[in-house]
Amino acid sequence: MPLVMVNLTIPSGESISSGMDCTSGRMIRVRAPDGWDGTDVVTFQLSPDNVVYRNLFDARGAEVTARVVPGTVVMFQQDINPGWMRIRGGTSVNPSVQTVDRTFVVTIDTTPK
After folding, report:
1. Cβ–Cβ contacts within 10 Å for residue 56, how many?
2. Which long-range contacts (CB under 8 A, 24 or more apart) does 80-83 make?
3. In this structure, what are the phi and psi dihedrals at residue 11, rounded to the nearest 5 degrees?
4. What CATH number has the domain spanning 3-109?
């Protein structure tokens, strides 16, 4: 299983990262930074082209969240190929601005299907 690890940073003074190209495979895990400001959740935005991003919601109309425990790894068990992705501290309604750069490490499985 060829794995690619990509850094995704929420800059100091911001609540959302720049876009990351996940088109080469499926996202299997995200390593959280060692520190975190504000609420203990992150949310996601997806884009097919790294131009127009939309907030990620589930089929019931709830924003998709992941709990941030600093210095831990979140595993994804679904077959997720998000195209382009951004990570936001907090939710779309209540974003969490970070006081320093916060870098996540996203692991993508590039094994052909």
Report:
1. 18
2. 80/26, 80/27, 81/22, 81/23, 81/25, 81/26, 81/27, 82/22, 82/27, 82/44, 82/46, 82/56, 83/22, 83/23, 83/46, 83/47, 83/48, 83/49
3. -70, 155
4. 2.60.120
pLDDT digits (tens, 9 = 90+) for 64-92: 998 889 999 988 766 667 789 999 999 99
- pLDDT value, residue 38: 87
- Please provide the distance, in angstroms rounded to a whole number, between the alpha carbons at the two ends of the chain: 11
What pLDDT sits at residue 16?
Answer: 97
Confidence of residue 28 (pLDDT cuts 50, 70, 90): confident
